[in-house]
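Customer escalation, tier 2.

The customer says the design service returned an amino acid string that "doesn't look like it belongs to this structure." They asked us to rerun it and document both sides in this ticket. The original structure tokens are below, unchanged.
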């Protein structure tokens, strides 16, 4: 059956989803966090809960392209430090989805994203003020606490609304990652995490044959978005890159709160 008929989509609605898929490709290879706009488009065109399951394979396609592009720049010690906490966040997010309605999900994620953006801006201004560093033991403990906190939040937000990108973006920026290291580390992170979410989403009934049929039509648009992002990222300096990531996070949080 044709996916347009299957999902009762108009031409304009499919065009909106195709643009959102293109934006996923762009965000995965250029400005991480920008795909919160895609999340909002999917939730506006499709039923909000179902949209998270339909968007997930599109995100995985973007993750694969990002890994192929930036695989040499990943920082694996950071990834191993994050994964245990992310697993906890995914489990909590799965339980949350069992009872939470769409309004609660949107509000919760929107508040988290805005808080993360605010904390990141505050931390960067504090760093610019050149505060004296603490001892190595204190710094190491603070780093572990930060990794666990962001990891749980990232797992939770990525499970309930595919909105973990901005949370991890804030963590990687706060950890001082440069542009390529940022993109390479986040590419592997989200490929692994998003693939691990598939059984949970299928178990919740958010992925089925009909959703995969629509995904097959939309994944085509991820590829040109990824190439556009790869072209753009070489033309964006580090400071502008950081500002765009933070701005995308704030816009995504506001969209979820105001939708």
């Amino acid at each position: 059956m044709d996916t347009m008929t299957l999902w009762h989509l108009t031409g304009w609605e499919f065009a909106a989803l195709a643009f959102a898929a293109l934006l996923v490709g762009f965000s995965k290879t250029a400005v991480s966090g920008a795909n919160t706009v895609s999340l909002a488009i999917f939730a506006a065109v499709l039923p909000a809960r179902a949209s998270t399951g339909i968007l997930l394979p599109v995100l995985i396609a973007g993750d694969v392209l990002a890994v192929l592009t930036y695989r040499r720049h990943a920082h694996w010690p950071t990834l191993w430090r994050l994964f245990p906490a992310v697993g906890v966040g995914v489990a909590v997010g799965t339980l949350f989805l069992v009872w939470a309605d769409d309004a609660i999900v949107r509000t919760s994620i929107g508040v988290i994203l805005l808080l993360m953006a605010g904390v990141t801006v505050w931390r960067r201004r504090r760093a610019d003020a050149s505060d004296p560093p603490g001892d190595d033991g204190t710094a190491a403990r603070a780093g572990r606490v930060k990794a666990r906190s962001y990891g749980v939040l990232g797992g939770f937000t990525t499970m309930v609304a595919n909105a973990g990108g901005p949370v991890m973006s804030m963590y990687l920026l706060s950890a001082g990652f440069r542009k390529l290291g940022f993109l390479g580390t986040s590419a592997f992170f989200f490929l692994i995490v998003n693939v691990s979410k598939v059984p949970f989403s299928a178990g919740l009934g958010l992925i089925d044959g009909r959703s995969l049929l629509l995904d097959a039509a939309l994944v085509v648009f991820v590829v040109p978005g990824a190439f556009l992002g790869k072209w753009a990222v070489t033309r964006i300096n580090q400071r502008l890159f950081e500002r765009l990531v933070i701005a995308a996070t704030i816009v995504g949080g506001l969209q979820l709160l105001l939708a």
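Tier 2 assessment: The sequence is consistent with the input. The CA atoms of residues 158 and 164 lie 4 Å apart. Residues 1-6, 130-139 have pLDDT under 50 and may be disordered. Sent an explanation to the customer and offered a walkthrough call.
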